[in-house]
């Protein structure tokens, strides 16, 4: 670069030469300033490249983006596999059951039939044979090449494409219709592992080295992280042109994706994952005890929390920690019954601000959290305390020992006017229980202000409920105090940053990445704990694209037309 | 394992030609061992399944006081009197922990099913139903069917850690999956191989051929995961292959009615209803050769069963209910166990309602019923209750109670695998490793 500049300058008149020198000095100063203020990101460490299964939402988004939202998906999805607190991380480790493949096959058949149906095919094909029984190779090549690039999130190799065209050709022969043949070609793509799995690839480099993902894998990480959907054509073009190899190109795409309609959905889906809302599928409440709670309310309760999160974090660019003290939310009429808050609006959502004494500060006081972490017929301080530790603070609490002596608990059960605190007294007095329960139950006791469905209460079995407790040294006596303690806990933002990053890369954080995590958290604090800023920081950091190739692995194939040339830092 | 299958017979008979075929029913025949042959002359297949109920039992109400074939049924087994001769009751077999942490309701269940106790759900080997399905599951539409009547998708059937097989929780969805699109009525009389199916099968073969390319590109752990995918793809190819063959007619089979029920949570009355519906559908699926392997979860191992209006679930009761002073055990917990055994009887009713050969479907099944623990209160994995029902087409002896005397429960797993044709001599790890077949179960 320097040589080229000096040879250019040699041919310039002197004033111009001076101008260039100043210009370069100015640029260098600006660069130094940028370095000083924002770029002390620790060197990339990377983890293994991952093979991740598409989640149900990602599958649905892919089909909707590529073939239109009206395309029906007839197969079902198996329950997601959670690892390190997130389904997003589980996708990098989950196997695939015969049931799941069977259902993917059902979906593939339905989607291919719908896309190439007489009614819809014109929207996807601008070519075709004059005689429908004949095979139109050029048309098949065009359709399968373009669709395949979107489905596989990279261009097809020549071999792959001719394979799919060949399949379509022979199917056309067997079935006597070009469109039926093409349908089979599309079907085979929809069931291919390259569609169902996100298979990350790295650019050429030394074995064992820290290297960068190839451009298409970068595009995948970016788009699934920021839109929970596969890369669109523009992002694939950016990968092809090499513009994802430089930070400017990446930043431009990050801004574009974060401005897209899918971005809020991605944020919601991250929080739905973190809050373990997929468990609602298996949550039921006894209708005699909680008549106001049913599956419709359960769905609305999740939506309430997600709407609140979206409004606070994205609309208002709010501080993440304030989610635990926030009294603004949205309710429907049937949720209003559980919240004992009349909602005049007959249909839809109404913005609500709870009074400070309403015991509704923070998302941990929402029905979704309270009902999910309860038994079908009663609340559970232990389940709720455990969930707060695990979900909001990323803390692990070990399993209970199998040989627990329950006699002391039994003694309380038949007594009159018993509260959960009485029932669980043994948890804090019996040494084998106390070790773990003293970290769970006390924070759960504050949430005893709500019954198993999340309605507020002051008494249990006729006795006044004592809400006092302690969160890692921060004593509290009310739900509002607990909200403050949770908001101000140092692990609260750290946990979010860690979850966000592990969700983005699809694996647990590595030991060496802890400095990077520290850096993320510092930046999070500098940005007033705004979640979009955290996501942008992750997406534009070098660590995000860094992977370590296993030592014994041969170089991975780099997708054709891939201009990526980064081979590590 | 080369046996005369329906496929080879029919391939010979009609050459897979695209013609309408109508096969007449023949009289029953017996082979040299006196075993029933189906109308087509094909040997009736032996099916394998598991049936799980959660939270163990009340020993004094469940374990017969006598061993051998002359024993009285204790209170909780009393409803099973009609099946006394069709069942072997196995008490006193242990999961040996060898120092592994006992994760309540998990370690016992998976220890018995894999022969290796684990402190979580990260199994170290496939569960025995998967091992058996690898031998006998290949010639039917479904390698195996997992079903749960308590609203939870668990099955305790694992291909590997991270690959649990999900259970169907809705009778309506279960029906659709078995008897909806893709189901060929074996008695429809005419058969026309579908060209579209043929084409789809060849397309899937092409997907399978792509395996090598991908395997070169991924690390060892991911290879294993992709292998699961390709195994399943091959299975779909096999299913399509089956659809291209005329199905063997099945005596006394008619397609069941589609149920409306989507499953109804965990209230015990609803669970029993859902379970009866599902057992009926499963029995028809086994009869019409849609599958030969199943796993039925009556209640989760951490039993979520409950009574209407009660604040505590079955599992919570096992921990919080004091022993009844008169009875000497937890009364409400005991009632759930009693209900679970009624559910088990319903299940056997469903299998034996179907005539097959010179007996019933149950005679040609081997059903392994078990719980996750013995005494739920202490999560004891010693003496997990086990029952074997059905005679596996004459290969299994029933009608007795055997006390295991603290033997590793892997002896049960080893024996049922051997009966089902898995070539295994020794099974389990450390103290659970055993080559001691339970000979009492063999005919």
Automatic annotation (TrEMBL), chain A:
Residues 52-115 form the DUF1587 domain. Keywords: Membrane, Transmembrane, Transmembrane helix. Residues 213-339 form the DUF1592 domain. The chain crosses the membrane at residues 20-38. Residues 472-544 form the DUF1585 domain. It holds the Pfam family PSCyt3. Residues 360-460 form the DUF1588 domain. Residues 139-200 form the DUF1595 domain. This is DUF1588 domain-containing protein. It comes from Pontixanthobacter aquaemixtae.
TrEMBL record, chain B:
Pfam families: HXXSHH. This is DUF1552 domain-containing protein. It comes from Pontixanthobacter aquaemixtae.
